[in-house]
Amino acid sequence: MSAATLNPATDADKLIYLVEDDLAVARLIGNVLRDYHFRCEVFHSGSELQRRLRQQLPDLVILDLGLPDMDGMSLVREIRAHGRCGVVILTGRGHVGDRVMGLESGADDYIMKPFEPRELVARVRSVLRRCSELAPDPVSRGGRVASFAGWRYDAESLTLTAPDGGEKTLSAGEGQMLQRFLERPNRVLPREQLLGQDDMSPYDRSIDVRISRLRRKLEDDSYSPRMIKTVYGAGYLFLAAVSWA
């Protein structure tokens, strides 16, 4: 099956912004995405992306951390502040600390250079699928606002409201994970189900980073968690009564 025949109906309406200062790499990625029917706009600096974000928010941003005019991590946080879209970091930095920092900044996935084009497309689709799963469903459970342990979570805006009224905005990946917990409380959920990946490597630690990030936003002590419990060898368990309105 050729690239041009894979999911054209679902991909054709998705807008992706690519931020990459290496012209050859940018051309390669842009061509791959268009071959798979995505709409793609290419930017060679962070400032170009900033101007475009003021006009239109895409479905997903693919961002190289090594930009000529600004820090890529800061740009990830800025993208998050604009609204709800997926963020995939693409970089040649191989240190595990950089990968963790990228996820901590709010990215939904992290791809190392050099990369296989099909893997890039698969990861892009995975992030887009997570974002689409967070779309509001007014029929399901009577609404999309969950209440639990004094907290409220609005799935449409990805807004988490603390018992004291303070608000926090989640990334698409964090929102998807929390929503899966909230829809299946008091059940052990395997790592693959939480990330939406059936072929997850046993050495993939991205789930641990995201769980840690979510625990911090829920003010859940990672050393003695009250809400998100680790069930060793099985997955994670969300310990709270949940109601939807």
UniProtKB/TrEMBL annotation:
InterPro entries (UniProt xref): CheY-like_superfamily, OmpR/PhoB-type_DNA-bd, Sig_transdc_resp-reg_C-effctor, Sig_transdc_resp-reg_receiver, WalR-like, WH-like_DNA-bd_sf
Residue ranges the UniProt entry marks as DNA-binding: 143-240
Residues found modified as 4-aspartylphosphate: 64
Domain OmpR/PhoB-type: 143-240
Domain of life: Bacteria
Any Pfam family: Trans_reg_C
Keyword Transcription found: yes
Stretches assigned to the Response regulatory domain: 15-128
Keywords: DNA-binding, Phosphoprotein, Transcription, Transcription regulation, Two-component regulatory system
Protein name: Response regulator transcription factor
